[in-house]
Design brief:
globular, FAD/NAD(P)-binding domain, alpha/beta, 2 domains, 8-stranded mixed sheet, single chain, 21 strands
């Protein structure tokens, strides 16, 4: 991959900022359309909130975004293009609930949670009485719903959106969930050699149009051009796509300053907090006990584990999300390992203590994303924040998984957002990018 020292001080057709899946998809489509495009990334690797690590024997695991399902056509098409094998997650055995409850009760509660989600999705987006509510406010109003279902719904928010439901705007969550349209579990499958490897495939295809370790400091824009300041260069283009999360795009310096409507739209977002662990064992012992490896904790809240084993690897993926991730952020790794091992032993039995290797990725306060896996709107009443950002700023387009009209917060949504932004920019420049 090319380095920052080969960037040329000249005008490009398009500069794409951010080499996560949104930026990679945008740059790839623009390049195929014949436009002069360059992709710059602050990190020294591609993928954004998708990343990976290797264990001592070289086995590679995803430490960021990982899962996919058959309802996500953009990821599946990319995997096919780059000959990446998709593995179905283990679906045998029974889930485990902590503290322990009968399986029948667990299924009953989660059926109730699904019904409550459907009720949320069915709310009227134009109902102004809902615009000032947090998720917690709305759930408290559902008095006909059993308490255990309401509590489990709130725990789900902490785990999936990685924020306290006291923070998340209800209208945002309802809108977000309407765009997640899968009929199969979004954790149905994963790529055998990591999702991160797929990002690297896309990067290789871009060749010297990609430049790493090139953070952007500021943008100066007119009606028809943009100049970007990096650490040691000024780059100009007819169009710019900022393919970074809303919080990070809002932190850049703009000249002239952002219009008040855009500044307000950026200020509506807050980062998610999550710690992802890959926990390796010699064998998936839980399967012999008719356990699926899926563990759902009601206490502590924000904790979830599932089987991520594959032919060359046996292990669990575990997520510490929302307020619980904030509690553990920056605490010693050995303390977190002990905490996790104790919870797994309680859930899966004494064999869970025989952990072979740990991988811990704390996304909280990440320097180039500020969190994971998605920014969320935390200011009730900011009902137009997404639409304002989607309209862009003159020759500048904002694109990220958060703003996607399909699967926001997922890799699928990131790809969709990148391709959508590329099509818009291409049309503005007089070419087709279908």
């Amino acid at each position: 991959m090319a380095g920052a020292d080969r960037l040329e001080n000249r005008q490009y057709d398009v500069i794409v900022v951010g080499a996560g899946f949104t930026g990679l998809a945008a740059a790839s489509q623009l390049r195929e359309a014949g436009l002069d495009v360059v992709l710059i990334e602050a990190r020294d690797t591609v993928g954004g909130r998708v990343s990976s690590e290797r264990f001592e024997d070289g086995v590679r695991v995803d430490t960021g975004g990982q899962f996919v399902c058959r309802d996500m056509p953009e990821v599946l098409a990319l995997a096919k293009t780059h000959d990446r094998r998709i593995l179905m997650a283990y679906d045998g055995g029974n889930p485990t609930y902590q503290p322990s409850i009968p399986l029948e009760k667990g299924y009953e509660i989660w059926q109730g949670v699904d019904a409550l989600r459907e009720r949320m999705i069915a709310t009227d987006p134009a109902d102004a009485s809902l615009h000032r509510l947090t998720v917690s406010d709305w759930v408290a109003r559902q008095e006909d719903v059993p308490d255990d279902v309401r509590r489990s719904f709130l725990r789900l928010v902490k785990g999936l959106w990685c924020r306290s439901p006291d923070d998340v705007a209800f209208f945002y969550l309802a809108s977000n969930d309407r765009r997640i349209t899968n009929t199969h579990s979004e954790m149905e499958a994963f790529l055998e050699d990591t999702m991160h490897a797929l990002a690297e495939d896309m990067a290789r295809a871009l060749g010297d149009r990609l430049h790493l370790s090139t953070p952007v400091k500021a943008l100066t824009y007119t009606d028809d051009a943009v100049t970007i300041d990096t650490a040691d260069k000024k780059l100009s283009a007819r169009r710019v796509i900022l393919a970074v999360p809303p919080i990070m795009a809002g932190r850049l310096t703009y000249d002239p300053p952002l219009p008040e409507t855009l500044a307000e739209a950026f200020s509506a977002w807050g980062a998610g907090s999550v710690i992802k662990l890959n926990i390796r064992y010699d064998a998936p012992f839980w399967r012999k006990k008719d356990q699926s490896g899926s563990v759902m904790w009601s206490d502590p809240q924000g904790l979830y584990a599932c089987d991520a084993s594959r032919p060359d690897y046996s292990g669990l993926v575990m997520f510490v999300g929302g307020p619980l991730a904030l509690e553990w952020h920056a605490r010693p790794a050995e303390d977190l390992q002990a905490f996790v091992a104790e919870r797994l032993v309680a859930a899966l039995g004494p064999q869970a203590a025989s952990i072979r290797e740990f991988s811990i990725r704390d996304w909280t306060d990440d320097p180039w994303s500020d969190g994971a896996y998605s920014d969320v709107i935390v200011r009730p009443g900011a009902i137009d924040a997404e639409d304002v950002l989607r309209k862009g700023l003159g020759p500048v387009r904002f694109a990220s998984s958060e703003l996607s009209l399909s699967y926001p917060g997922y890799v699928e949504g990131a790809i969709w957002a990148g391709k959508s932004a590329a099509r818009t920019v291409a049309v503005e420049l007089g070419v087709s990018a279908e």
